[in-house]
Amino acid sequence: MVASRLAKRLLHYDLQTYGQYYQLLNNGQHPHEFQLMVNILTTNETYFFREPKHFSFLQDRIIKNWRGDNFRLWSAASSTGEESYSIGMLLAEGLGMRKWEIFGSDVNTEVLETARKGVYLMDRLDNMEPRYLDKYCLKGVRSQEGYFRVDEKVRNRVNFEQLNLKTPLPRSLGQFDVIFLRNVLIYFDTETKQEIVNRVVEALKPGGYFFISHSETLHSIKTDLSMVMSSIYQKPCK
Length: 238
What we know:
Blueprint: H1 2-13, H2 18-26, H3 33-41, H4 52-63, E1 70-75, H5 82-95, E2 99-106, H6 109-117, E3 119-121, H7 130-136, E4 137-139, E5 147-150, H8 152-155, E6 158-162, E7 176-180, H9 190-201, E8 204-211, E9 226-229, E10 232-234
Parallel strand pairs: 1-2, 1-7, 2-6, 7-8
Antiparallel strand pairs: 3-5, 4-5, 8-10, 9-10
Helix pairs in contact: 4-5
């Protein structure tokens, strides 16, 4: 996979080996190439309301019982934004004009640009209830037919920025009531999983909820989180 995805970059620079490409990345003469490589190599499969049980739990067990001042949620691997906007529709429905915000992050700068625009093909909607489409999305017409855009009443509550989960998080990130870290840990070895979970969970408020994908597990990861149900965990209250 790595070789096939990077083959065009070797052709672009007229290189014969991947070792030569590695040297090019490190010689400082092409400062933008490393981010381009990251964008090429990252996997960005996502869609609206992926793994529906998570959204049902968020809606029924968390949002309906929320009594705080400002609800903050972090989509820690937001990709092209479908996860963040799916959550945004639930928050708009459940919390309305109360204070809430979503922070979406990804290491890939290209997908973040797509997320900020909030424009998607209509065929991304298999798991979205029609009422959300009608209430929180604008269907394209004429040249934009076949597309829709997430309405600004949701988009304005979502902020997307680049973050690398393998590096220290900025202090300005703050604390969150809920963190979604789905379909990330499957790509790393146990040591790296431990580092990422430790780093991300530090940004979770006491009593906050932590979501991973149904295909992932925290088995062999040391944490003080308690399992609420499969793939959903809660941080103990102080």
